[in-house]
Amino acid sequence: MGRKLVCAAKIFFLLLLALAAGVWLNGVLNTNVRSYLTTDTGESEGSRILFFGTSQGANGINPLFLWDAAGIEAYNFCAPGQYIGTTYYVMEDVLSRRRPQAAVLDIRSLTKPEDFLTISNKLYSLPMIADPLRRFSMYRDVIAEEWAYVIPLFRYHNRWKEIGRADFEQSYTVLGCVGEHHVQTEQTALPEIAEQEAQPIGERELAYLERIAALAQEAGVPLVLLDMPCYTDEETEAKTQWVREWAAGRGIAFCEANRPQAYGGMGLTPEDFYDGNHLNLRGQEKVSSWLGLWLAEEFDLADARGTEAGDRWEEKIRLARQVQNDRELAIRTDAEGIFSLLLSGDYTVAVSLTGSYRDGGEAICRGLLSLGMEEAAYEKGGAFVWKSGEGWLFSSDGRPEFLWTCSPGRDELAVRGTGALGEDGLWQTQAELLMDRQNREKTENGVNLLIYSNSQERLLKTIGFDAADGWRPLS
After folding, report:
1. pLDDT tens profile 197-213
2. Pairing of strands 102-106, 49-52
3. Where are the domains of the chain?
4. pTM of whole model > 0.70?
5. What is the Cα–Cα distance from 112 to 118, expressed in whole angstroms?
6. DSSP assigned state of 14
7. Is 380 helix (H, G, I), strand (E, B) or coil?
8. CA–CA distance from 201 to each of 231, 236, 249, 252 (Å)?
9. Pick from 241, 240, 244, 284: which is nearest to 266 by CA?
């Protein structure tokens, strides 16, 4: 009897452990592969414009640029693969807490069949819905698999082989906006949009669109349908035409951002896309700025910059500005641009000066001096660590051997020096820049920068400039 009780207790304990692991993993896996969706924790409060829709909007609409271009407070609730049914529940939840001056719907999911998206696609937006009952209603209505909702461990059964370190790291958006910096190379011209005869969208998609329109009307919030820039096919354009006519028949504003006339106003080029469907960071800035001006004119929105409300918004978006600065810094390879962005953000930077680093590289020298490095320290070379707001934390000061460590965020940064005789018979210092015990240097003959984002608590980039290769950036 005693053994049976012990055995039952062990089984019960293992079941509890499995349940706890499932709940924990669900928290990790409740977003997509890149883990960039978060619940709305108040960032949208005070927004006059709210965006909803798919990855076209998630990657293409940056509220920071709407603010900088037109002084409009905005927030982005778009998400990759956000099925129109999911969009309805996200909007319903958000409008129960917020009353913006307009709700903008990216229409791309209306032109795609429901089976175009996987169950995981439809679940990406689940964390955006704060009300658990509404969240369950969305799941039951859109997915119709309640058992998987009740047992969260099974929701992402198709992702087990994809799980990596990124799934366990905190990540940040810019007021809900994500971004890619890559430039697509497949297209050499902008999308050629030919008007097609209208083709109806799916019945289920139409039903959700009607519900969204009724929801906005009931909340007293004007609805805008937005056609984002992207490369489309004839069927998509035919369905877009049908949505355009549907909106016109109901007096709903339709923003024609995917038309050659709009491209000209935006200054858009093929290099502003990272693939055929999505804008990169450069395209994001152009389209968002244009969209801010369009919305300001369409709804007669006053520029809030310089007002008391604008000052409150600026305080609210401080982290968003830092994340945007990080994104810009991550793609820069020119020394002048890198050091300029370092001065406007919050970073810990490790620097190594080795080999023939004095032979040219004037822009790098000026950049280091702009951070407060003394010329005598630059001439000695070695390794250094600089932090925003605190200045230079460490300098090897010409010593051939050294070891210095610190812990920015959850990571371990170390600079280490070893002495060696060079070919000229002189003692030379070889400096290493280590993050989490891995040497991140790109060159042993020039300058290396290891840049850590203090706001996001992660390694942002490492880049080297090789003196023997014309100071070509190595990343």
Report:
1. 999 999 999 999 999 99
2. parallel
3. 22-325, 334-474
4. yes
5. 12
6. H
7. helix
8. 19, 9, 16, 17
9. 284
